[in-house]
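Sequence in, structure out. First:
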Amino acid sequence: MGRDDGPRVRVPEQRAPEQRSAEQRSAEQRPTEQLTEQQEQPTQDTGLRFSVLGPVRARRGDETLPSGSPMQRALLTALLLRSGRTATAAELIDAIWGEDPPSQALAAVRTYASRLRKTLGPLTLASDSGGYAMRIGPEALDVTVAQERAADAEKARASGDRCLARILLNEALALWDGETLASVPGPYAENQRTRLEEWRLQLTETRLDLDLEVGCHAEAVSELTALTAAHPLRERLRELLMVALYRSGRQAEALAVYADTRRLLAEELGVDPRPELATLQQRILRADEELARPADEPTQAAAPVRPAQLPATVPDFTGRTSFVRELGDRLATAEASVMAVSALAGIGGVGKTTLAVHVAHQARRHFPDGQLYVDLQGAGARAAEPETVLGAFLRALGTADSAIPDSLDERAALYRSTLDGRRILVLLDNAHDAAQIRPLLPGTEGCAALVTSRVRMVDLAGAHLVDLDVMSPEEALQLFTRIAGEERVNSEREAALDVVAACGFLPLAIRIAASRLAARRTWTVSVLAAKLADERRRLDELQAGDLAVKATFELGYGQLEPAQARAFRLLGLADGPDISLAAAAALLNLEVHTAEDLLEALVDTSLVESAAPGRYRYHDLVRLYARSCAERDEEAPEERESALSRLLDFYLATAAGVYALERPGDRTVDHLEPSRYPGLTFTDRPRALDWLYAEADCLLACVLQSLGPRALRRAVDLLMAVKDLAESGANARRYETAALALRDAAMSAGDARAEGRARTTLTQVYSTAGRFEQADSEAHRAMELGIAANDPWTSGNAPNERGILAIYRNQHAEGEAYLQKAIEAFRADGNKPGEASALCNLSRIHLALFRTDSAVDLAEQGIEIYDRLGLALRLANGRYALGLALAKGHRLAEALEQLTQALGIFHENRQPLWEGVTHFRLAEVHLTAGRYTMSAAHAEQAIALRGIGGEWRRGTVLTVLGKALVQLEQPDRARACWAEALAIYEQLGSIEANEVRELLPPATAA
């Protein structure tokens, strides 16, 4: 083998311009009217398409045309790859047979050409000067299309548009369908095959390079692992793999790749790695922070992602001169300090956000790398979680979803690393407390943070604290004048002063009052002043704090029609971040079109915001005010409870419909509490799933708001019906919070049925996360409660979950007993999907007990039930179980077929955690079959997708990956994988640690 540095050259030579005959050139010089008849005759068959990037094929529309014998395909290849140029008979003979042609070669060429002309038509294969030429357009040949895509990608990359470049390169690579010129004989085809396959590899390297530049390093690892195994001496691929692993937080594996490469080059060629590779190893050893980020673009390339998230500043910003100067000076000097933090505190409505946004806009020039903004919802019942905010910030800074870690500490570390060397301004609006914002602070030189909060951040070390008070009378009057209009205010100056005084000089109150006046041309300022005096003057109108803010909202609320006022009061009761039109209609007990009219009227009064078409939300202060109105103004307090009950019914009914559509025949929906209010109805699964995931936050907020005795059972059942939210992994944390709250509420209420169901859902959450001890404890108690409450749902599902846990905990005898109980309970209930699930789980128990034949039979029984009921998602679980059983029985081809089908179904149903664990099983099967490159590729996919089982699952994947890497002659990287797996198992106290210790050398395993 020769050393392969992976040349980074461009596309092969583009096609030459089509040659024109003398007749054609003469025709171009004739008058236009003489060309009419000729133009009506086509010069090409525009419906023809040819493929050479794979098997040589010809198509006309959707019809595949016969291309003849291998020698005839060799002739077609030689003509297609000449870009329209004429090939003489001698050249074609040499292309097909080389130096030893048969005696009848010329006749054979003529025969092949005649057959092709009959198939393709005389316009396509033309005789020219004793030879032949193909007359086709550039779009007719796949290799030409690929060349054009690659050239466009190079231009896009040079202009800085890396995303477009990646798309174009992927389009080019997608044109390949297996080996180039597959099964085409002859020296010409062999040379072209080698050339085009080398070009394909170069395009792949370029696209992988772009993947790393845009932060898709986690996704790139799997492909690079397979490519380095297929091309072990191609050092450029090894270099890219090292970078991808390092940026994925796998430093030890990255260094092991270098060690494997150095050993291989020494053994095969007797040389050292090229200098670029050695330099990269040193940078990784030094934990080079520059290497942790995508490399800088060439001079012609675009700058890194530059977020610009600041909300628009108000055009009528008024006053606050000293604060603007003070904060502006602090931000202007941020470049020379470790980190500038300024925290603005004050009552609600005092103008903290307006001031911060205004100052941030003025300081933008000092932060050329961008500005980040988030509303931390600190004034609400549930403040934003720092890890959620960090996820959004990392995405805004260009980090791919798959590269964002799970834990708060890891996200905060990656966030600080991403900001290092950049000058970013971070505006943290409406913070709850210092603990919430500490992980969100940049912590690097040149960056700054502006924080607004209702509380003083006295425990925020190093922060510059600013207490924002109400406006001065002069500033307040100036703001009022700018909004209401000078002419009206100047003529009634005293009345205007009364208005701003009645507003407590709070900017938010002044803005609302002035806006109402500006919208009503028949009002005078005196009329507005009188209204303010009459409504709140004798109570606590001029107090600071929330009461002053409430006084301002009274101006808008008092002008509402009775139906609008009722809608305003009741909609504020819901805890979700926003509310859909359909949900709002349910809460209000109105027709959708009537509810929409009311909501749009509230938007017009600025009391409600339109978050998106068909969705509405409150500002947090307005929501609090709406709730106070509901408590104060509702004639019957039970109306508030009824409104929230209707909302819960709507969500439960809709979620039950989605569940039934996803799982036809599942008896779960028959055991749910009845809903007195109807929900939405879906006829196709994609739309149903879209609704489920779009409403995730609102659904879980509704559950948490429904812990009272009258709503508790429906809340538990709603959580059961939306279990896909937990299984997908996207909302697992909030789902767990809801399940815990329901469990505790059910215990307090003494409701055995609700508690058993809540504990069963909690079991599923813990099991998915790999917290098997906690899961088993919950499932054990759930089984007892299911029997006590005579609840068929818990009586079947709780032992089924315990059976699954027994598989993970190697308690196979106990697991078999649990699953037999589950099967009996499901059969007694007529729950066929539940029975199928338990059968498939029992199949895995039989596998562990070496009863392979019965394992296959049980899995096939489960699949037969799923298939008969049309359960697409559950069918994937059945095929997964059958794939495991077939693999254990050494029926590897069948196992791969079942697991591959399961993988496709999981992907279609948006179940990335199940995708991940299925990739792991495919890696195991390929390892057993000796297909080590495929095994490593699937293992890498499993790591990127984070399968069911949390860190324990990661340990199992790393173990299999290491075994595949050893067979691919990458022992150092394999040991790095096993060392990480051992650390995981030891931390969890897992028995699998013993197996890994045996794989590692004694010094490493100690």
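Second:
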Amino acid sequence: MTAPGRRSSTFTRLLRHGFTDASAAERLLESDQLAPIRADPVLLEALGKTADPDLALLGLVRLVEAQGSHTAERELLDTLVAAKPLRDRLLGVLGASAALADHLARHPGDWQELVTYEPQDLHPGVAEFERGLAEAKDPVSLRVAYRRCLLSIAARDVCGTTDLAQTAAELADLATATLRAALAIAGDAAPGDAALCRLAVVAMGKCGGHELNYVSDVDVIFVGEAVDGADEGKAIQAATRLAAHMMRICSETTVEGSIWPVDANLRPEGRNGPLVRTLSSHLAYYQRWAKTWEFQALLKARPVAGDIELGAEYVATLAPLVWHAAERENFVADVQKMRRRVVENIPVAEVDRELKLGPGGLRDVEFAVQLLQLVHGRADSSLRSGTTLDALKALAAGGYVGRADAVQLDDSYRFLRLMEHRIQLYRLRRTHLVPEDSADLRRIGRSLGLRVDPVVELKREWKRHRAVVRRLHEKLFYRPLLDAVAQLATGEARLSADAARERLVALGYADPAAALRHLEALASGVSRKAAIQRTLLPVLLGWFADSAEPDAGLLNFRKVSDALGKTPWYLRLLRDEGAAAENLARVLSAGRLAPDLLMRAPEAVALLGDGDGGGLEPRARAHLEQEVLAAVRRADGGEQAVTAARGVRRRELFRTAAADIVASYGTEETPVVADQGALVDQVGGAVSDLTAVTLAGTLRAVVRDGWGDTLPTRFAVIAMGRFGGHELGYGSDADVLFVHEPREGVDEHEASRAASAVVSEMRRLLQVSSADPPLLIDADLRPEGKSGPLVRSLKSYEAYYRRWSLVWESQALLRAEFVAGDEDLGRRFIELVDPLRYPAEGLGEDAVREIRRLKARMESERMPRGADPTLHTKLGRGGLSDVEWTVQLFQLQHGWDEPGLRTTRTREALAAACAAELVSGEDAAILDEAWVLATRVRNAVMLVRGRAGDTFPSDGRELAAVGRYLGYGPGHVGDMLDDYRRTTRRARAVVDELFYGA
């Protein structure tokens, strides 16, 4: 007897053999059921080798109790001690699966299935499983027979007799035999239906791919035909009844539980389509309606039950369509979009535990392999395997995937699938979530051979393999493109030139030959630059392919690399700063404007990082003005000073454009900015501030160069139009008025000549041909328009506005804002025009009619010939002009008594009108949405084409690039245009009511 307070030697041995509840285990060992073998050392040793010794011991006691007779108990225990294969198999299953332990307790004779250890028993196929299910004549007996067969599969698995691939294949073979048995039961129940039709069951998904899990939906497609002489309609109805009954036999819960759900949702039209179709109906659907993912799913199609000949005919008929799917427009983008959608639909709380669908999960490997199969399988039949690991091996053998990458991916995929198997085997429940409970994690870790600290080791290995998959799954597609143009080690297979071109075409490259030349130039050689670029390019190629202009992205990257490749900080930036490389890829492939700005001074690429370059956050106007004025002071002469100011403008335009592109496209670390209005405001504010400080610097340079420190007349620049409204786009001119006031004692004519000279020189210097984009000054909104003087004195403005001012000029002055020069003079000019733009008591009826008449005339006369009025962003229906004139009418009528309306900014004025209840919240939102969208389109056109435009591009690639900027994926240009028309049509209805009073 053990002394009080001391542990028994059995207790200590139990702990040493891996039991966690040694006290409970000791009591079970002392039970009468185990008395005959309690002292046998092989029992404790065998239990200690299981995944969960406590669970295995409990299951064994329950199994012995269930035997029902002393003779049966002795037979079980004697065999357990004498036969090591049985001992390892039985205890291994009991320690890994509570569900199979329950089955054995209900059917205590089934342990005999684990006794035989013949060669044919080690690797059973469909025929062996069919024999095992042969006695099943109803759903309940089928479940019992199925579990009995599953017991032997699990035993071989947990003992290591079979590896992952063999286990998955056996599970698929058992599923095949089960489907056949279920269909036979359904046929026996309705012999009349069976006689009318031919019904083929085609396995899809993991069952079709011969790589099934322990518990998974078994995906199928049904094909039916009438037997000779039968009516087709009645035959298909009969086949449908048989198929539905077969599905219920497998899926419904009975006293013995269920087997697994049979899922037919991969069929044409999904759950909305007929359950059974004829072969010709299937073919017609796939030829006309099928989406890319449906051809991807057909990679795993395999006839398994019913009329095998009909099933084989189905697979053979559709195969040509499958292997031409890669030729479909936006093929790669569609596949990758589907993968992203899967990840996005995972609940946030489960993403980090999702073994199958999460980042770095099983689906990443499967999608990558299937993508490569579809691209190259047309020309290489060796790749046409439905089994992921076999396909990966074939891809590596053919040089389509790097051998080292394939080995790593194979290893990680096997580990993750084994984890999945062990998780599902415990309760035989369909799940892909890694449990959080430490006992569950310990059992899984031990089952995978991790015995020192199973929980810690399991988490570490899982994290490592997931990281490998995340790193490799996209690179898998792009890395061999570099190997195709690089020097490889002897014996290493390479992607052929034809295969490389084929892959580039699938990615959306219009000129794959040129792309290969760029890759060769970038990746060849033994320099540090080439080595770093070889590392970066697989990822960059993927980002380029995500744009509408992958060719331009790669070409631009080569140009930047040629310019900066020998600069240490450039390579360090791309290698070490995570965001920089992706930001660069987005910017280089989003259109012409941003790359053009970057090529003029490639060192601006530093802005794309997270370091000292200031990043992509817009700089405050005060800081910009300080920098520009300091550069002007340091310069020798006016031209050099203005060149410096324009250089700052070019750099900051690039910063603004890059920030806009990155926010619109989104990156792996930063999602797409949801508030489109905020993006518009940011671009408009940044470009307007930049224009203001450029004018301020140019004015300072011109005055200093011609008159020293003091000009004979005070001088101010007044912003007008979009400039005054802080709404400039990338391609906007600067609308301005110039005002001066002679200094004391200076002759008016002399002052006027000096002011005119300043204006002329400013305009000249800002348009001098150079590496920097010109800034065009437009003063056409001045009194008398193009016929009037470019610059007037404050008194002259006062006299003109008092005597000659027209209502359109009052409207134009709503945007007037001082931006450069003499601040006091600018303030007095604004005070002068305030009564004009915010007239006391508002506008009279005649003035309102005149504004409406002007607007109607502008719509009819200024719309370009041949332009689509539904797509013209400025003058079209519901476009910028419609919204702005409506808002400005509110300002002219009510600005005198509503302070919120006294702003130069359209969106602010619209919000103020809504707050003053001049417009409903719903109507204000409609107008705001249309204005923001039209502005975004104009910005997109400039970014894509490199020149301003007020309508959507006619070129297909440029139109797709505009769509990508606006958030529309490949193939959705039509949706973009429809959405634009819908949004502006609603806005025009509001304008007709509020502006025209219709």
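Remark: Confidence is low (pLDDT under 50) at residues 1-6.
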